[in-house]
Each structure stands twice: as structure tokens, then as C-alpha cells.
Amino acid sequence: MRKGRELCDDLVISIFVNPAQFGPQEDFESYPRDFERDIELAGKEGVDAVFTPDSLELYPEGFQTYLELEKLPNHLCGLSRPVFFKGVATVVAKLFNIVKPHVAIFGEKDYQQLTVIRRMVRDLNFDIKIVAGPTVREPNGLAMSSRNNYLTPKQRPSALTLYKSLVKAKTLLKSGVKDANEIIQAATKMITSHPETRIDYISICDLECLEDIKTIDKPALMALAVNVGRTRLIDNIILNP
């Protein structure tokens, strides 16, 4: 919102928990919602309008038109959440068509989502500039997320291993380690040494196509998804050799 306020004359935000991007066993019903707090924060940041459709407005009875990308979803989160990016691309295209923004801002924490939206905008000739918002972190480094509310106090040290493993990767790269697998193994060791952690994936990949790379000889994305207890968390960092 702050970045949007700097860039735009009129700032619009959408608040919509999108059912189309949740799988059958995922947490759509329990996903954290605090509408009154969201509105209060939006007001403090100078938002001009808040768009809050309900599910039936965006997906009326008989709805059958969805957007799918062929390659980008076949990596990272898309492998374990097969419907996610179909739902993301569809709802974002609908929001773009309804609100008609000139600029749209998406967070780098969901780097694959940001990449999918950039590709969709290019492929479908949306006249919209996509701006990346840097990941916002808690004071200890944990990437901010609605799902952090699920974590118990005992689980928080385990959750923090995502960020610590990314920092460790940066340190290893700086010391001369360019082998992606060696860095992934170090991250795996750090994360699995803490209780209640289950790694979904740790990947070092190309910044645009998201395909895994073996040697870090150019800027690359290190991304990971880890379940801490029942809470699925993601984080990433750009590794610059």
C-alpha cells in the first residue's frame, strides 16, 4: 500500500480470499481473515478505495472460464499445489478487468506468483505495469504471512529456520560455494534439525523460467516451502554470485 501510494494518484486495494486457488484439503475455510483490521490499516495508509467482492460475484453460478499457464506452474509451489496458479491467474485477470489499474504491485515473497502474473500480463497484452514489492519481515527475519497466525510460540524457532537457511546460503555463496546442491543440503540440514519441520521443496533456480540450476554463476532464486506443524510457509532470496 505504501509503495502504491508513492506511485499512484488513486490507490485501490482488493481484499478477497480466492477459493479457486485452494485445493480440496487446504485451509480455505480457516484461512485468517480480519476485515475490520484490514480496512483500518488501509485507511491509515491513504487508500482511496477497497474492492471486497464475495465469491459469488467473481464466480457466479455456471462459471467455467479459467486461465492456465503451460510451464511456470510446473515448478516450486505448483508441484504440490496443482490448482493454485490456475486460480491465481484467473482471479488476477478478473481483478485487472474490473479495476483497470495502470500499475499493480505484488510481493516478492510469493516470487512464483509474481513471475506468473508478469508472464500473464505479457502474454495477454494487459496494459499494466507490474511492480515487485520487497518481502516484509518480522524483526527476527521471519517473512510476514497471514499463516504466521497459525504458529504456536514453540513452533516459531522452527519457522525461523527458513530465513536462517537463506542467510546461510548467501554466506556460503560469498565464501565461494557455487554448487547449488551443496547449498541445498546445508539448508536441509539446518531446517530438519528443528522439530515439527517437513520440507516440501528447496530449490535454486533461474529467475525467469524457474528451472533448477546446478551452478550459481549468475543471479538465481533460492526458494523453499516448509511445513512447520500444520502450517505451510514459503520464503525466498536472490543469490548474487
Concise description?
This protein is 35% helix and 18% strand. By secondary structure, the chain is α/β, with parallel strands linked by helices. Helix 6 links the parallel strand 3 and strand 4.
Protein architecture, described:
- The chain has 241 residues and is of the alpha/beta class.
- It has two domains: 2-133, Rossmann fold (3-Layer(aba) Sandwich); 146-239, Pantoate-beta-alanine ligase, C-terminal domain (Pantoate--beta-alanine Ligase, Chain: A,domain 2).
- It contains nine helices and seven strands, in the order αβαβαααβαβαααβββ.
- The protein has helices spanning 2-7, 35-44, 55-58, 77-80, 84-99, 111-123, 156-159, 161-174, 180-192, and strands spanning 12-14, 49-51, 103-107, 129-133, 197-205, 220-228, 231-239.
- The strands form three sheets. A three-stranded antiparallel β-sheet has the order 5-6-7, covered by helices on one side.
- Strand 1, helix 2 and strand 2 (49-51) form a beta-alpha-beta unit.
- Helix 5 (84-99) crosses helix 6 and helix 8 runs antiparallel to helix 9 (180-192).
- The longest helix is centred in the middle third of the chain and has 16 residues, at 84-99.
- The chain starts with a helix and ends with a strand.
- The mean pLDDT is 97.
Q: In the CATH hierarchy, what is the class of the largest domain?
A: Alpha Beta
Shape by Cα distribution: globular
By DSSP (H or I, 4+ residues per run), the number of helices equals 9
Provide the domain count. 2
| Quaternary structure type | single chain
Task: Write the CATH fold name of the largest domain.
Answer: Rossmann fold
Report how far apart the termini are: 32 Å
CATH architectural group of the largest domain: 3-Layer(aba) Sandwich
The helix/strand series, from N terminus to C terminus, equals HEHEHHHEHEHHHEEE
